Amino acid sequence: MNLPAWIARRYFFSKKKRSFISWLSILSMLGVGVGTMALVIVLSVFNGMEDLNRQIFKTFESDITITPKEGKRFMASPQLLARLRQTPGVLLLTAVAQDNALAKYANGQTVVRLKGVDDNYLQRQQLDSALIEGKLLLRRDGINFAVVADGVRSDLSISLIDILTPLEILYPRSGQSFSVLNPDAFSSESLTVAGVFFIESRYDNFVLAPLATARALFGYQPNEVTSLELQLRPGTDEGQARQALQEVVDKATTAADRPGTALIVQSRDDLNVDLYRAIRVEKLFVALTLGFIILIASINIFFSLSMLVIEKKEDIKILFAMGATAGLVRRIFLTEGAIIALTGAVTGLVLGVVICLAQEEYGFIRMGMVSSIVDAYPVRVYGSDILLTGVLVIVVTIVTSWFPAQRAARVASVSNS
Hints:
Keywords: Cell membrane, Lipoprotein, Membrane, Transmembrane, Transmembrane helix. This protein has helices at 3-13, 20-60, 78-86, 150-156, 211-218, 238-253, 268-271, 273-311, 313-321, 326-362, 383-416, and strands spanning 64-68, 74-75, 90-105, 108-117, 131-134, 139-140, 143-149, 167-172, 186-197, 206-210, 224-225, 227-232, 263-267.
């Protein structure tokens, strides 16, 4: 039998009287429990926000993107495109020409992000779930169509029923003096709006158009692009595919006979690394703040154990007279502190996980925003967060219980002398 644990349990579950010390122990347990529950819930919400952003990016951005290290465009030769398509794991390759432009519709105008894509872009089926009106169409019977974001539709009051009013895209000509009075200052292309999509506010100024239209508007050469977007086959290791693609573009751009612009291969997470870093830093500071709250709540353990040492001073002397050592007495009060803290921590962990799972399943706490992509706050419970919370509570318990336990051991040492 573990004597320190048995005596500590007797102290904790004693029903002889409910003294101030007992109520202080209960208050300590509740404080640790509430702090632990809050920490689990908040960390899970940050995890959910990170997963939500990945889901949003996956709806519009490709798995892998190839861009120039310097400048905003480069020549994508047919040989390079062929090698990229032959790279293991590559499913689709999309050439992209993208830049800011001015959009006019009827009497309205606004600045948009024009993204010209080739014909296989729609095969990625990323926007299928984001389409809210019309259809995904870029070219048919020699007519160029556009798919616009809901923000562009709202700014220009675009009506998909009105097929006679075109969406006019204007872009400054290279080498011309910029002047709204100069009719030759802008290149223009007219498009018919085929559909409207909505993902999230950061994509609300996008207009998708055929690649040939964008190239003609920007003044690009036939093989010139701003980026190459690649979709990987399901189950492909993203890291290995990224490394293999980087080797392909390095060989293509460092060839002795035809050196080209240096290119960089980036995953979807690489393109949004600043956002993920900001979320993780904020998560860290919130975790530290709640950790301090748990520490403050655990100070009650220090006071309750200190008062318990005073109350049980005669019991300690009796234990020592029966042969107990200072180490055994210390372990009794350390175990008492552990019972108080871990009871609250386990209860808080269980409640926190249950609340997060219920939110994940039923979404009873709503975002309260009409334009949000999700109705309820996203949460995701990770085992690493549960482990981190448990370790934090154990460390706090040892810190707050050590000094009262050491004081009890000194009582036994004084009795011995």
